[in-house]
Queue: 4 jobs
Job 1
Amino acid sequence: MKSTKRNTLRIIVAVSSAAVALPLAIGAASGASAATSNETTTMLQGMASEEKLAHDVYTTLGDRYPTSVFDRIASSESQHESALQQLMSLRGIADPNAGLGVGDFASDKWENLYESLVAKGEVSLRAAGGVGVTVEKLDISDLDLALGLKPASDITRVLQNLRSGSTRHLTSFQRVVSGFTR
């Protein structure tokens, strides 16, 4: 009896997974999914660029200052960007950061912001921490705006996780500004 229930459950899970995966695969194969609005596309691409900005700024400042905070958070930002890339891929949305190296961006807006933030952070370790505070506050604000769009549940879940991570990053950079580093 237990084995029959387990097999039935496996069949239900397999059919449910196929029911979700097939439309996503069809939508991805034909370009942007019909259910993906321009607003969602713009939001996901913008958030991906913002996560790349954070990663690249922290990577560059991490090369300058031998504290683990920049390397650790840069790695986390890379994971954030990967989560957004997966969402875009499922929807057939082009990744604006594909093939771009550290400090390279698809738009002048992000490249200019990167250069400005790095220049401010190169003044001192505390200034670099202040740059981190600025980036994380911007990220949290933009994540709140994105969540206000009431996106699909999978997008909402990722954005909430990113916001939680950004809140922790903000706290870490506030410690750098106050002189506490590891």
Job 2
Amino acid sequence: NAALELRHKQSLVDKDFVTLLEARKKLKTLLTQQHLHELQKSRCFFGEHSKKCGRLLVKMLKKRQDNLHIGKIRVNPHWTIKHPREMAETFHKYYSALYDIQETMNPRDNASCLADMNNYGFTHVKKQIPMEARDTLDAEIKLQELNVAIKTSS
């Protein structure tokens, strides 16, 4: 739209004006009334503060970053952690306990864990995977398969 407006202002050709009007009509049909109101508000806001728009944008981005940043976590009602290393250790401990992840697992525990997973699968999973498909699950993922999966997911 901006390129069309610039081209129309520079050339003043009727054809450019007609294409600009068609593009504006398409945009107006796509946007709801609320979107148009918000767009108009932001245009007015930046128009009123035209000399300060760079600073305003920086403030908006900083506010957004501050909202996404985790500055501290509360471990219990009386104790908060602010240091990043301690926060990472707390997260690690929490999720290790949540998923029952053990640092050193001896092979017998690993075998019993696999047996438990197999028992759960046999009792709860209703659909069976054919033997041909089971063999391909253990094979390495090929680059071509990965490309196809990425293309179909987008």
Job 3
Amino acid sequence: MSFHYMPGQFRVPKVPNFTLPDGIWCGADSDSGLFAFDAGYSWGGRIMSRELCYSLSVGGSTLKPVFSSINGYVYWSGSGYVYYTQTYGWVYMSGMFPGYEPLEDYDYKDGETTWTGDSFYTFYSFPQPGGGAATLTPRGSIHDRGEQKEIAAVWPRWKSKRGEFGEYEPVDGAEGTRWLGLPRFRGGSEYFVRSFAKTNGHFTYGRIRHVDGKWVIGEPGSDAGWHEGSEPSREGSVTFKFTKKEGSEARGQDISVSLYDHVKGDEREKAYLGEVAIWR
């Protein structure tokens, strides 16, 4: 539930069927390594993922995206490479570096065609979101004897159940439930929003704070009384008992606190930006 929003103008190579938004939420603490953003209608709108775009699956092997430009596009790396070439468009190839322009030639003699060159595959229709696979066609030295393969787009992710903040449910192989936003609790007519960062090892929740080993609402020892309970939890309600000093005539009611929703916080911190060159 701990995320920083990082606005920016991301300059990345093109990705077929996907455009990276200008700003993303970056996970912190227990959510480190996660990103949350609007992936567009085809991918289910607002999602959470460990990758900034989808992977590709070829023959049961997963190829991960690499945000380095080859002819203007990202490429995918795994058991082989998927990248965009000037000659054949999209290719799948192993044994050579990404960006290599594969070779294909043929010789026609006595009514027979012999194909030579590199062993690679091409495809013209990029796999669509939601499981639509594309066909890989053998080329070069395997032009007339290679088996066709299928390539599919896969993206283990969590999809928002409702709006930007709140619960995200698993999709496409992801597991468990994720949450975006700071939990906001309600007790009567009062709301308690959890802090982003901890102070002395504990979160604060508006007027709810950890003092001398106890979770309290109000000021312990005050003549008007205060409330004591436990840390608010997403799993259920917490009761804060009205407490007063011995002999005090102050009166008050207990407060039952439970999760209401998740919201964007208003805390800020410094972010350091830089620029690096990619060498290949």
Job 4
Amino acid sequence: MDVIKITKNVYTVQQAVEKPFMKFGTFRATRERLGLSVIRRCFNCGHKFKDEDDTYLIIFKNAPNQLFCEKCNDLALADMKKGGEQ
């Protein structure tokens, strides 16, 4: 017998910014120094961040803040300018 469960979560971007949050290397070092977990991939596409990559803080409705890569942040900004929520 096979049991397959698929969960679909829809996250609504409440706010996206044009300027980078910080370099991933700085973010990683700060979180590790404080003993906190580190988000190592883009929340949208799964791109693995390198230390020199810019990260963008995305604020969702009813979900914790996440990091996007530059490409995904540009898509979010374009969607919001087109008529999505902000």
